[in-house]
Amino acid sequence: MASALPSTSANGGSPKSEKPNKETDDKVDPYIRIRVITSDRSNEVHFRLKLYVSMSRMKRAYAQKLGQNADELRFVFDGHRITDFDTPKSLGMVDDDVVEIYQERTGGGM
User: What is the pLDDT of residues 12-37, one digit of tens each?
Assistant: First the structure.
């Protein structure tokens, strides 16, 4: 006589667990982890940012941590200066990307 129990997969799980859950697979983590490093590599701070929040928030938080004004620092990602209106998404950032910090310099004229 045939069994009335539902069939299971070879690993003992139910057939339903073999199919990927499309809802959870399509969700993307709305946060990104970045590393902010001074140009002399002496200080490194890690941030967890939302993908669509302006970088001005990170810049202010980092400057405050150093006890400086954000306007005195230059934030650079991938060779390009980060503006206050940039977001991690607009810059194409992925987890563990590095933002470099340089001291802003003015002058130089003779």
Answer: 544 444 444 444 444 567 899 999 99
Give the containing element (helix H, strand E) for 18.
helix 15-18
The span from the CA of 46 to the CA of 62, in Å, is 10
pTM of the predicted structure, to 2 decimals? 0.68
Burial of 71 (0-12, 13-18, 19+ CB in 10 A): exposed
pLDDT tens digits for 48-60? 999 999 999 999 9
CA atoms of 35 and 45, how far apart (whole Å): 6
* Torsion on CA atoms 23, 24, 26, 27, rounded to nearest 10: 120
